[in-house]
Amino acid sequence: MPKPQDDPWKWRKCRFCKLPFKPTGKDVGNARRQQFCTAAHQKEYWKRGALPADKFTARIEKQLEKRMREILREQLPGLMLSYLEEHGIPVPGATRLQPPHGI
Ligand SMILES: [Zn+2]
Question: What is the Cα Rg of the chain in Å?
């Protein structure tokens, strides 16, 4: 029985930015060897090493905050409406309700 081969296109961590990626190459050998998500990250890694942990954390936090703001912007008007309706507060021009400024 042949030994099961490990998938050369399996997910792995980029050595530079530490984010997971799938190899992009068409060639099996290259796919198995790929350690960086992009050529730019490979270049950066050999220039100045991996991204420092605090920089990496800051980047992830920034992405998280951006996504949370997006979710809030989408959900907040609906949430406010249902809250007002639940408490029997009349909502004039409810269809024109906009999210508060700065979100
Ligand atoms: Zn990367």
Answer: 23
